[in-house]
Amino acid sequence: MNADHTPAARPAAPFHRSVRTTISENVDATTGQRTQVLATSELTLVMHGPNLEIKYRGSAMRLDPERARADRLARRGLGS
User: Fold this and answer.
1) Which of 33, 58, 68, 71 has a Cα at 20 to 30 A from 48?
2) DSSP string for 5-70
3) Residue 56 in contact with residue 41, Cβ under 8 Å?
4) Residue 49 CA to chain centroid, in angstroms?
5) H or E element that contains 75
6) Contact predicate 40/23, CB 8 Å
């Protein structure tokens, strides 16, 4: 309770939250080089009385499959 003896307002709880992770692969038509991208996003929706709060964040990073393969081989002692 507050000083005026009214119940304290509780923080609003999200009514929707979603997280999405994707991996996409693109191939350069001229070089044949493959590029992988790992993307993650998060969406949260919260009602504050008549107001809708939308929170979004996302990130993406390029993966290098050849480097990952070389790292695995090196850990096994098979790298050049």
Assistant:
1) 58
2) SPPPPPPPPEEEEEEEEEEEEEE-TTT--EEEEEEEEEEEEEEETTEEEEEEEEEEEEE-HHHHHH
3) yes
4) 28
5) helix 65-75
6) no
Domain limits of the chain?
14-75
Query: What's the Cα-to-Cα distance from 40 to each of 16, 23, 28, 69, rounded to whole Å?
Result: 17, 9, 23, 23
Pairing of strands 34-48, 14-27: antiparallel
Residue pLDDT, tens place only, 23-57 = 999 888 998 888 889 999 999 999 998 999 999 99
Residue holding tokens 């493959």? 34
Q: How far apart are CA 17 and CA 43, in angstroms?
A: 6
pTM: 0.58
Read off φ and ψ for residue 60, nearest 5 degrees.
-145, 145
